[in-house]
Write a structure and sequence with these properties.
Distance between the termini: 53 Å
Number of helices: 14
Structural class: alpha+beta
Length: 670
């Protein structure tokens, strides 16, 4: 399909969407400013509340489970979505006009822009914003205002590009809006960069993006150049806000996308002055291309991005953000590995054919095809992630050993994500909206991740390290030795991950300097584990949470639904990922070990739908948690000695391997 035909088809679909909103009478600008969107979450089910952009106004807000919620905080959050949706309509109407030439859509876009410009000075600098926020006018946060403003100004620029004229009164209102916006964005940049010494903040990237749009709209090339070159500007932020291995410094996939999208908007504005930022590199080689390539490599086989640290597992606004940067990554840089990422984003939006605004504005000639060559293993030494992939084995892994990640980090060092082409089996389940108490009572805690906790307590915020990473020259194995020494006082944790073309070995050693403690190895599958006999257990797992500045621990109880019965020193589990697709899991057990099934909250999309986790527990000073995963059939583990195990694949005469663990080299595989 040619670009023109594809664009025409998408433009007509987007036109119909606008028509429905006009017929509903919903394209009216609220006179009230928005609040904080993270409060748009059900206090009972902890799911995001439903937003319908066809509503004119709302005072009651629906939970997907049928709750009806009222209150100022919820209304303020609803208003955030309403303002953002109207800004999107302004840009969408401008894009439809650009594609189809129908003047009524230019007039609609223009009306929304002028009405917002006239209303903006009437919004107060938000009196109800939380104390830690940089306050906006149209929203609690200036951050939200910066993002919203880039959508409006891009609509304004697109209309101007297509010859739409604003009369004197209309332009005067636009000029006042741009002036007020520039003043607040410049003030907040000064606060972040000079008063708080926090130039690397993801916030800064969006203040820069908003100002870039303002300067482009006002034709102020010198101001834009100063912004690009100055402290905290585009080039400086790229150098300090992104690690040399191309990942955003907080180690969060969501905030990586968030910052990258701001960079791309700034680059789009700079291009209007003939300034090319698309090829700019930071002080240590950081680049937008590198950031996009990192996402292509991190995505699972379906194209879904992992929810590392804070960020949603999946939500429509995030999928649109992913689509926007992926379309540009394909069009500008030709990164074919982004094709599955884009396809998955559109799948989540119910637009398999790319019938979205992002495709109309940034889309390429043809629908992109994913690369056919298998992706290799990859170590991100600065960000602290490692991916293991081996040709011939459908299983792959992603592990996290890097920095905590500041306010967006989780207590999750040595977390393991196990992936299969059919489905990611043990994902990081993401983060609920920040207005939910489950942000701190579950989703950030160690026990909600696939790693080890002690005594129900979470790890301290810290950074682990990769002791050894090695991909074999023949491509048949990859080994990662990850270590943590600061999670708990006097505790050393070593996670050894060995992926071959047959299986994945996870050998997790925990050693304490003194005293026995409850050592708790967790695995959280996204599907129900199929187990053998479960012994009934009348007990609960107690998660102990140390709240900031609190003298006492908060406790959360999670029911233990049974203990798994070992057979010849092993526990066998399996996970069905669809028709004829099963992953088998073998756990080696020793005297004193317990392997338990625990009911936990669900994922961050819907925590109210419980999942069943696997807890391998031992009370001692030292523990070896040895687990093997294999697709399609099981493998068995035999303990040969304290330092050596044997893995056998039934039915394969040469399918037995010996693995030795050593202090200096880690695992030795033969």
């Amino acid at each position: 399909m040619s670009t023109a035909l594809r664009s025409d088809r998408i433009a007509h679909i987007l036109k119909e969407e606008i028509d429905k909103l006009q017929q509903a009478g919903s394209l009216l600008i609220p006179k009230e400013p928005g609040g904080w969107w993270h409060q748009y979450v059900c206090p009972h089910h902890h799911t995001e509340l439903v937003f319908d952009d066809g509503q004119v106004d709302a005072a009651e807000f629906a939970c997907p489970h049928g709750c009806s919620i009222e209150g100022e905080a919820y209304r303020g959050a609803w208003l955030v979505f309403k303002h953002q949706s109207l800004a999107r309509v302004a840009l969408q109407a401008a894009a439809v006009y650009a594609a189809l030439g129908e003047a009524s859509y230019a007039q609609l876009s223009k009306r929304l822009l002028v009405e917002y410009a006239e209303q903006f000075p009437l919004y107060p600098v938000h009196p109800e914003a939380q104390s830690w926020m940089l306050k906006g006018r149209a929203f609690h946060q200036a951050l939200t205002e910066a993002i919203w403003s880039t959508t409006l100004i891009r609509a304004y620029l697109l209309l101007r590009d297509k010859g739409v004229v604003f009369d004197g009164k209309e332009q005067a209102a636009i000029d006042v809006f741009l002036g007020l916006l520039a003043g607040s964005m410049e003030e907040y940049r000064h606060i972040l960069i000079h008063e708080r010494n926090n130039a690397e903040n993801n916030y800064t990237a969006w203040l820069n993006a908003s100002l870039s749009c303002v300067y482009a709209a006002r034709g102020e090339q010198a101001a834009l150049e100063a912004l690009i070159e100055g402290q905290g500007g585009f080039k400086h932020h790229l150098s300090i806000g992104v690690k040399p291995d191309q990942f955003e410094f907080e180690g969060s996939t969501y905030y990586h996308v968030f910052v990258l999208r701001a960079y791309l908007i700034a680059a789009e504005m700079a291009q209007r002055f003939g300034i090319d930022l698309y090829g700019v590199t930071g002080a240590e080689g950081q680049s937008m291309r590198g950031m996009l390539e990192a996402l292509a490599e991190l995505a699972d086989d379906q194209g879904a991005l992992p929810a590392l640290h804070d960020g949603p597992l999946a939500r429509a606004p995030y999928a649109r953000e992913i689509a926007e940067i992926a379309e540009q990554g394909l069009a500008i840089y030709g990164i074919s590995g982004l094709a599955p990422v884009l396809r998955e984003a559109y799948r989540q939006l119910g637009a398999a054919g790319g019938e979205q605004l992002e495709a109309l504005i940034y889309g390429t000639d043809e629908r992109p095809q994913a690369p056919t060559a298998p992706r290799a293993s990859r170590l991100w030494p600065d960000a602290g992630f490692v991916i293991g992939r081996v040709a011939g084995n459908p299983l792959s892994f992603l592990a996290d050993f890097g920095e905590h990640g500041g306010s967006h980090g989780h207590y999750d060092k040595l977390h393991l994500t196990l992936m299969h082409p059919a489905q990611t089996l043990t994902p990081d389940f993401g983060m609920v909206p920040y207005g939910s108490h489950m942000r701190k009572s579950w989703f950030a805690e160690t026990s909600s991740h696939n790693t080890v906790a002690l005594d129900g307590m979470s790890q301290a915020p810290h950074e682990g390290r990769c002791v050894r990473y090695e991909a074999s020259s023949d491509g048949k194995s990859v080994y990662a030795w990850l270590q943590s020494t600061e999670a708990y006082e006097g505790c050393t944790m070593n996670r050894h991950l060995l992926l071959t073309d047959e299986w994945l070995l996870d050998w997790f050693q925990v050693e304490l300097a003194e005293g026995a403690r409850s050592m708790e190895w967790w695995m959280h599958p996204a599907v129900q584990p199929l187990t053998g006999t479960l012994e009934e257990r009348d007990e609960v797992y107690t998660l102990r949470i140390q709240e900031k500045d609190a003298s006492e621990l908060t406790e959360q109880k999670h029911p233990i639904i049974g203990g798994l019965v070992p057979d010849a020193g092993q526990v066998q589990l399996s996970y069905s990922l669809g028709e004829n697709t099963t992953v088998f899991h073998t756990a080696l057990t020793e005297q004193g070990d317990e392997v338990l099934a625990v009911h936990t909250p669900g994922d961050s999309i819907d925590p109210s739908q419980p999942l069943t986790a696997v807890l391998h527990r031992r009370n001692d000073r030292r523990a070896d948690f040895i687990h093997v995963y294999r697709a399609d059939s099981s493998a068995s583990i035999t303990r040969v000695s304290k330092q050596e195990i044997e893995i056998a694949v039934p039915g394969q005469p040469k399918g037995t391997s010996r693995i030795q663990i050593t202090e200096d080299k880690g695992l030795i595989f033969r």
